[in-house]
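Extended Data, panel c. Modelled sequence:
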Amino acid sequence: MTEIDIHADGVEMVKSLCYFCHANCGVLAYVKDGDVIKIEGDPDYSNHGGLCCRGTSALLHVNHPARINHALKRVGEKGEGKWEQIPYDQAIQEVAEKLNQIKAESGAEAVASAGGTTRTDDWARRRFLNQFGTPNGFHNALLCWIPTFMAETCVAGWSPFETDLAGAKCLILWGMNPGASTLGGMDGYTDLQKAGLKIIVVDPRYSETASKADLWVPLRPGTDAALALAMLHTIIYEGLYDYQFVNDWCDGFDELREHVKEYTPEWAAPITWLKPEQIREVARMYAMNRPGCIQWGCTWDQIGRASTTGSHAIALIRAVCGNLDVPGGDGMPGPSLGFLTDEEMEANECLPEEQKSKQIGSNKFKLTSWPGYQLISDNAKRTWGKSLPTEWFCEAHGPSVFKAIITGDPYKVRALIVNATNPVNSYGDAKMTLEALKQCEFLVTVDYWMTPAALFSDYVFPAAGALERPTIVTHYGATDSFMGGRRAIQPKYDRHTDMTFWRKLGLACGQDPAMWPWETEEEAYMHILEPLALPGVEKYNDFVDFYRMYYPPLHQNKFITNGGFWTPSGKVECNSSILRQLGYSGMPTYIGCIENEIDTPEIAEEYPVVLTTGGGFMPYHHSEHFQMEGIRFLYPDPYFSLNPELAEKLNIAYGDWCWIETRRGRIKMRANVEPEVAPNVVFAPRGWWFPERDGSANLDNPFGCLESNVNVLTSVDDWDCDPMGGSWANRGLMCKVYKCGEFDKEYKAADTQFSIPGSSKEPGVTVMPSDQHLAREPIPFEVPAPPEDVPEGYEWVWQSGNLYTKDTHFRLDESGWLINPKTKGYHDAYTGWRYDAANECLVDDETGKMYTMDREEIPFVAGIRCYPGAEAAPYEVPEQLAWDPARGHAVLGEFVYIYDPNSGWLIDPETGAFHDAYYGWLYDAERACLVDEASGRCFDMSYNELVAEQPAEESEPSDQAAAEGAQAAEEGE
């Protein structure tokens, strides 16, 4: 192996970031002659110099021969794999023409876009979609934090996702395994545990992290909601909650107490496979070791119809224990008030209300689409002054978009732009998703690799990788901190960043160039950072070089200083008013996972084994890195885990190829026999495909994308999705497992046939999406009428009874003034002008003009405030000056100069020159003296006349000067 000398001449070290998972570890890239020659972890970053195998592969990634390097245009049939390489800008122009044609013929909503997992500048995609006029942008974020965030925000005003572990006494790791997924952080948990932190792991698997826990809670997959409700019951009925916090800051607690009365540990035990005492033990350990944290894990969002119920109950567990926004608890940062948030970059104001109503899925899954987002966003603006981004938190329902492509219900989606995602491996019901990609009239993909989506695309655009782009990490635009990395090199070949793609496409579609003022990410990122006015930061790279990370001072107990929480009522809402207004129960109400032994015994009889899927596994992230030979060597084949007892019963040995089958279909994986799961559970990892195969060789199963893909086994039927957030079930499914036989070992065409609904025995569409019901029907709710007429320009918030301006969301105070939620400053209720206490006046910040309290404009002359009509000066006037009531300022004799009480000088209104306030002499800045303009004589600042010096040979000393010199000489001797 060739030794790389990073200290050689011409080698530059660039601070970059890894882009291959959410940790975004720090990377030091060594660059020579415009190419990266070596990378290593940054020891001064949060990863302390460490990089996992994904991060260390970045150098291979940037030069990998399978990368897409140029824009490709399809010239054969869809999926045939025949392409024409064309210039990037030509491809952009042709795509724009087709999108505009579809918009003209079918409306902007006929164009949709599927996004990836923070592999893009997400605000740029939404900025394009909003200006184009379509509400149909989405990710598979419904399986990852977004429903949880929205439910938690309904309870307490923001998601409490930032753990203050240094001050915590107890930590619950619920549905997460940092021992395998976030290696850079696991050492931190271990160190804190050694210092006394109690760690509880809730996980059906005896994972790497569970093996090190103080308490492992091995619940049945998919029953997290039942466990959370039983824990909540235990905490309340055993009196383990924080009485003072509940009394002072919680609304509706008595209703909640009655509501959870039936959710006892004995009730939950048969559902969760736990003993009642196990449930009580975990509830007690958390509640009796305060302050404590509950670390989010995406399991909560992957249970299907029970998902939001579980996260709702967990949010209330935190709340009644007083662990919100306190030292050692779960932090609620809110949106950044210092730098520009993602929402401020999205141009959401460009999307008309009419188009919002056309968002697919928003009539059913309201919490995470425009109906729920609007309520939550308006409330955030009323309380924080800013909101959360629509990208991630206001999604079209992805599976419903795919169904709309196939069925035209509720309308035909004709174009789909796939940006940094591999939909067949990322969304539920992979067979239906693949069929949608095949049937999509106009498909465009932006990616590193040739994926199934790219294979069926009309155009494929190459994406710049981690080392080829600058990175800014704002945690989905939901917090007040960010991290940054520089691009190590310019994009190779004809690769471009995602922001460049969306910007170029927007301009080609005819969008206003003024809405795309930044040509590079560095310019856009500097625009985001500019309000912070960080010393020494004149461009984005300065921030990375000098700061790297920005974390504002930690502000806890904000609800005390703020006078309340950030909900409509100002308190933690145990019976959420926003959820009720959306037609949901305001308190978590149990519903079972989509298939289980208790609710669906007939299914359990045919499919007796419990399946949990969707878990990540090293060295891959989602469906990434399968092309990397070195990484693939570490994990060459798909393995699922089953207990030795079940393996013996089914005559399965380690390494055997087996079929895993649910009502939706079956897949092949190899058996990993070990006791990490219960005897009647199997665990199958997500994301598997075979990109080394010829994708065009089998269009029913291109790249083997269905063969070992767990999403073939999952359901996205409406009745199986969460009725609030729309997430679908990866966990708690019922399946059967059997070894591949001699005559049944090949994945067949019959295995690839799609159906709607997914469990239909007949291929094709047998039930239209709009005819599918939800697991829970909406609960009628009527917003109370205001007690009196609402003034024009205001809106009345029924939960608090407060009035807010519609445009600025300022609150009308009892004093008659408006309160700015961002600054807490006062504004005039009629004009909106800000009250300036120092000058006792009103200020129009848009124009900079100042007004009296009677709203009369205050005149300024030469930048000095005047008070015409005032009989006496409002400031002290030097005795040599006179107050001029008509002009409203102090004057010196007949001079036209204006006295400035702040500087003590007179100002010439015509020239802006300074004059002294005693004689009116001009200040000469170049010579630092005063000049009597009438005589031309000069004076120092103490009014001593300055006499110009004459050359010695041309002048004789005066008699007095000679005498003084002689005397000085004698004294010197």
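The mean pLDDT is 93. This feature is highlighted in the accompanying rendering.
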